[in-house]
Amino acid sequence: MSAITGTERTAAVTIHPRGKRIAYWTVTILLAVSITLSGIGQLMRLGGNVELVTHIGFPLYIMNILGSWILLGVLAIVVPGFPRLKEWAYAGIFFLMTGAALSHAFANDYGDYGFNFILPLFYAALNIASWTLRPKSRKL
């Protein structure tokens, strides 16, 4: 049996806090603006929101509930402090968006090119990215 001796080299991975902070805010602002517009659209019943909700069989009052939850979730994520509330907001947005995608899938309402299914999943992915990149001051 032969023994190999020598020095072991490991690559040091350097995390640039500035780059991570820029990535966090870029993703978080994109998420916040996107779903804020969605929440406002639901509360004001703009665009195709009414058709989206009624086509899958939900009552119209659900738009008031979901729109309010979306705006409160965005507020919780963007405002400094309250790390536990941020955790709940991230979880809520994730469940809301994946639930929307699944609701459209189960109702066979994929929209043009799968838009009604893909867009909420894209928002859920942005939500996960924002949660993953958040700085220590925004963690529990």
Secondary-structure map:
Elements: H1 17-44, H2 49-55, H3 62-78, H4 83-106, H5 115-133
Helix pairs in contact: 1-3, 1-5, 3-4, 4-5
Characterization of the model:
- With 140 residues, the chain is mainly alpha-helical.
- It has one domain.
- Helices cover 68% and strands 0% of the residues.
- It has helices at 17-44, 49-55, 62-78, 83-106, 115-133.
- The radius of gyration is 20 Å and the shape is globular.
- The termini are far apart.
- The model has no long low-confidence stretch (mean pLDDT 89).
Average pLDDT taken over every residue: 89
The number of distinct structural domains comes to: 1
The count of β-strands is: 0
Instruction: Give the biggest sheet.
Output: none
Low-confidence parts lasting 5 or more residues at pLDDT below 50?
none
Short description:
The protein starts with 16 loop residues before the first helix and ends in a 7-residue tail after the last helix.
Task: List descriptors.
140 residues, mainly alpha, 5 helices
